[in-house]
Design goal:
Helices cover about 55% and strands about 10% of the residues. The protein has about 375 residues and is an alpha+beta fold.
Length: about 375
């Protein structure tokens, strides 16, 4: 640790110890999310710089920049539910920001040096020096830099204009309603002077995060959304990452996983008889694939296969209104005991479903009506034929 950071050794030791604990947690979470190994490498780099007491370039430690590098680590822990770890990282960030060096202050003369100066001077010299120092102090106290004076003037002008607008004074006074009067000769009036617009005071610039950090954050957020099956949120983060670097390997991998996930969503919608959701989901997957130059064969094959599936609706046994309106249609009953029954609906009689059953007996078709208690049925699949 170099001389400039020796006085901060006491503060850095607990910070480094906390970062090592968080690094171990990243290592233990590596199997859960692919971003944790990246965060572990970032923590390892920060710990090495803090232990060395300087940046790799030899410059003094940039504590505020190091604190900003910890934000993605806290974000990924909080996103998976470890809020306490996120709070611990936030505490480390504040500690590093407090360690940032302030502007150097001119050294004030000590009491011993002042005493030595006063004893080495004659009384006359001391009087002249005291008068000179008093004059310098008065000049220093009453001298205000011109930029500050200009800023105060601009601020006063802005306040006056805002007050005139609020209270309707001067050129900002509300005009009375126009009343119909007899035509009169036009009278020339002098134009109302418009006060000059206040000069905008530029705000201090803030250092924006680098493109690589932003890209890594968006890729990590997209992966996390895919992990939890939130495809809409994954699309948002993927779009933001593509604006930074569309050809990044991580971006293309996420796009391919997202297309596969959307195809699975379409098949799940068809399995639940949500036929109106199938085509919009496949179209969303097709747009993602085309944007990133991916193959759409699997999307097209899935669309043709689902389009050929026989359409049906799934209802519960308590939906007797739909069951009665489907009289004559073919059904498949999933019983609560795990068995299945097929036939055509003849109607509902009390608490029983009337099912027309046809069976092959001795080379001939025998048709009969079977009463099935509605309470013994789990779901009813009603086909469109």
């Amino acid at each position: 640790m170099n001389d400039e950071n020796k006085h901060q050794g006491v503060e850095l030791r607990p910070v480094i110890a906390r970062l090592r604990e968080i690094e171990k947690k990243c290592a233990s979470m590596g199997s859960r999310n692919e971003e944790f190994p990246l965060m572990q490498e970032r923590l390892s780099s920060i710990i090495k710089r803090l232990e060395a007491g300087e940046e790799p370039s030899g410059e003094p430690l940039a504590y505020r920049a190091i604190a900003r590098e910890l934000f993605p680590v806290a974000h990924i822990f909080e996103s998976v539910g470890f809020m306490s770890v996120g709070k611990e990282i936030a505490h480390v960030e504040r500690t590093l920001q407090d360690l940032a060096p302030e502007a150097p202050v001119a050294d004030a003369p000590t009491a011993g040096s002042a005493a030595r100066l006063s004893t080495s001077r004659s009384p006359a010299d001391a009087d002249r020096a005291g008068a000179s120092e008093q004059t310098d102090d008065e000049e220093t106290d009453h001298h205000v830099p011109w930029p500050i004076v200009g800023g105060l003037v601009v601020l006063l002008v802005a306040i006056m204009i805002a007050a005139m607008i609020i209270f309707g004074v001067g050129p900002f006074r509300a005009k009375p309603p126009v009343r119909a009067t007899a035509p009169t000769e036009p009278v020339e009036t002098a134009p109302t002077p418009v006060p000059p617009a206040p000069t905008a005071v530029p705000e201090p610039s803030r250092e924006a995060p680098g493109p690589s950090n932003t890209l890594a954050d968006e890729v990590a957020a997209a992966r996390l959304a895919l992990y939890y099956g939130n495809h809409e949120e994954a699309i948002d983060h993927l779009s933001a990452a593509a604006l930074i670097d569309r050809d990044d390997v991580g971006v293309l991998e996420i796009a391919d996983e997202l297309v596969s996930g959307l195809v699975d969503d379409a098949e799940a919608a068809a399995s639940d008889a949500k036929w109106g959701d199938v085509e919009p989901i496949l179209e969303r997957a097709r747009r993602v694939a085309m944007r990133f130059g991916l193959d759409t064969t699997s999307i097209d094959n899935t669309g043709r296969r689902l389009a050929a599936i026989e359409r049906y609706v799934i209802v519960g046994p308590n939906d007797t209104r739909t069951i009665r309106s489907s009289t004559g249609r073919r059904v498949e009953l999933n019983m609560k005991d795990g068995s299945q029954r097929t036939g055509r609906i003849e109607g509902v009689e009390g608490a029983d479903l009337l099912l027309e059953v046809r069976s092959d007996v001795g080379g001939g078709i025998v048709s009969y009506t079977d009463k099935i208690p509605l309470a013994s049925i789990d779901t009813i699949k009603i086909f469109e034929d």
